[in-house]
Design goal:
Elements lengths: L10 E5 L3 H11 L4 E5 L2 H10 L4 E5 L7 H11 L4 E6 L4 H11 L3 E4 L4 H23 L14 E5 L5 H9 L5 E4 L2 H10 L2 E6 L2 E2 L2 E2 L1 H10 L4 E6 L4 H11 L3 E4 L4 H20 L24 H5 L4 H4 L1
Parallel strand pairs: 1-2, 1-3, 3-4, 4-5, 6-7, 6-8, 8-11, 11-12
Antiparallel strand pairs: 9-10
Helix pairs in contact: 2-3, 3-4, 4-9, 8-9
């Protein structure tokens, strides 16, 4: 093998039932990647059985199989591929389903900007290549750090929610409650937190900026949204800017909550021990206005201790 040979082009699959959209994708990306096209979810799955890819870009609204159904199945066939969903309408249930089942890297609203879509695909390719290299080089996992097990921080205006989460999880879990963002950061400064469970708003302040800032500076932290007042635009922001792990609707279902938190804690451990995976969950960096709630906590969030790196 020639050590100076250029790496093979990344493989990107585009799925849309509109031929004109696929033509646009061909013109936009064929010079940069090895591109594949499918006009339905079923044809995409048939292709994936024969040809693994680095990135899948799918439309949501397609006859026969939706984009979310495709990406859910594609995750089983091609788990390392990064998944991007093109959505041209507001469908909250579909968006939440894609977060919980498809692990979407980004949502892209239709009509899209070619420049923004190109940048999103480029970042997805980089994330896929990095995580694939990390998986190939994986050896024995490092020992877990000494000290307390990672805790669960619950941010909610309702002070009854954290005790409820504690009761659902049981006494083997360390659950901390905060009714303000200031309280939440105070706890993170003092406790080893692995999972943050939060409503979409705390004290009437949207949490997307805070969650995005946490993910940017401490990518091993895993966020779960627990709310009864989500909307499609808000859910898209939370995945694109905060890379939330799962979405739970109130009132809490005990079984769903326990399964979700257990999965989130395991995901935290994977990210803590494999920094190469952080790129898979990279967030969009949006400029924050001076008055943004997360802004006054930015320095404190940056200086939060990393229990993993200290071990």
């Amino acid at each position: 093998m020639n050590p100076h040979a250029e790496p093979a082009k990344a493989r990107v699959l585009f799925v849309d039932d509109e031929p004109r959209v696929l033509t646009t994708m061909r013109m936009l990306f064929r010079g940069h990647y090895e591109v594949f096209f499918a006009e339905s979810g079923q044809k995409a799955l048939e292709l994936l059985k024969m040809q693994p890819v680095d990135v899948i870009v799918s439309d949501q609204r397609m006859p026969g199989m939706t984009g979310i159904e495709l990406l859910r199945a594609a995750r089983e066939l091609n788990p390392h591929a990064m998944r991007i969903l093109l959505t041209g309408y507001s469908d909250l249930n579909a968006i939440i389903g894609s977060i919980n089942e498809g692990e979407i890297f980004r949502f892209v609203n239709k009509p899209w900007s070619n420049e923004d879509l190109s940048l999103t695909v480029s970042r997805a390719v980089a994330a896929a290549r990095t995580s694939m290299a990390a998986s190939s080089a994986a050896g024995t996992a490092p020992a877990k750090p000494a000290g307390p097990a990672p805790g669960v921080l619950v941010m909610d205006d309702d002070p009854a929610i954290p005790p409820r989460v504690q009761a659902i999880l049981g006494d083997d879990y360390r659950v901390f409650g905060a009714t303000t963002m200031d309280d939440a950061v105070f706890l993170m400064e003092r406790e080893r937190i692995g999972v943050v469970i939060s409503d979409t708003r705390v004290q009437d302040n949207p949490v997307v900026s805070l969650i995005g800032t946490l993910k940017q500076h401490h990518p091993e932290l895993v966020s779960v949204i627990l709310t009864d007042r989500a909307d499609a635009g808000q859910a898209i922001e939370l995945i694109n800017q905060g890379q939330i792990y799962r979405f739970i609707t109130k009132p809490m279902n005990e079984n769903q909550t326990k399964i979700t938190v257990n999965s989130a804690l395991k995901h935290h451990e994977r990210l803590a021990h494999s920094p190469e995976l952080h790129k898979r969950y990279e967030v969009e960096q949006k400029p924050q206005p001076a008055a943004a709630p997360a802004n006054k906590f930015l320095d404190r969030i940056r200086s939060l201790r990393s229990w993993v790196r200290r071990a």
